[in-house]
Amino acid sequence: MDLKPFDTAVSPVAAGLGCRCPRCGRGRLFSGFLTVAPACERCGLSYDFADAGDGPVVFIILLAGTLVVGLALWVELTWSPPLWVHALLWTPLVLLSTVGLMRPLKALLIAQQYAKRAAEGRLDRGTP
Ligand SMILES: [Zn+2]
Q1: CA 3, CA 66: separation in Å to the nearest integer?
Q2: Is residue 117 a contact partner of residue 6, using CB atoms and an 8 Å limit?
Q3: pLDDT-based confidence at residue 1 (cuts at 50, 70, 90)
Q4: CA 28 to ligand 1 centroid distance, Å
Q5: Domain ranges within the chain, ordered by starting residue
Q6: Within a 10 A sphere around the Cβ of 43, how many other Cβ atoms?
Q7: How far is the CA of 101 from the centre of ligand 1 (A)?
Q8: What angle do CA 90, 93, 96 make, to 5 degrees?
Q9: Other CB atoms within 10 Å distance of the CB of residue 62
Q10: What pTM was estimated for this model as a whole?
Q11: What is the CB neighbour count within 10 angstroms for residue 103?
Q12: 20 has pLDDT over 80
């Protein structure tokens, strides 16, 4: 596969949700749980550009917070169970919806960053 910079053989959503390289869609993006590998082992794309920042965490806070708080309120207002039932219900859901979504959301934002060529802004120093 001979891909030029910013060519992509896979959709950013598929690459992101699969935690794969945003260019070839086959190499692994992560070398650890959330550690981005230095480069793709398949196509050689350097992941130096990858910087999702706090983006995944913000989306997870909004999604998981809305889901868990909404469900907890609904259960409380409908059945008023004891507190241990809430702890038993919401602790696994919080863990699944936060830790479980971290990798795919970080990979999705990195794939979107690659597809949209997002980078830090620069001043144009062209001729006036
Ligand atoms: Zn690749």
Answers
A1: 41
A2: yes
A3: low
A4: 8
A5: 12-115
A6: 17
A7: 22
A8: 150
A9: 10
A10: 0.81
A11: 17
A12: yes
Distance between Cα 109 and ligand 1 center (Å) = 16
**61: number of CA atoms within 13 Å, CB side?**
5
Cβ atoms of residues 97 and 3 within 8 Å: no
Distance (Å) from CA 35 to ligand 1 centroid: 16
117 Cα–ligand 1 center, Å: 16
Provide CB contacts within 8 A for 108, sequence distance 6+: 12, 13, 16, 17
Alpha helices by DSSP H, the chain: 12-17, 55-79, 83-115
Q: pLDDT tens across 67-112, in order?
A: 999 999 999 999 999 999 999 999 999 999 999 999 999 999 999 9
Dist. CA 64 → ligand 1 center (Å): 31
Rounded to whole angstroms, the Cα distance separating 25 from 40 reads 10
Percent of the chain's residues with pLDDT above 70: 92
Q: What is the pLDDT of residue 111?
A: 93
pLDDT, residue 73, reads 97
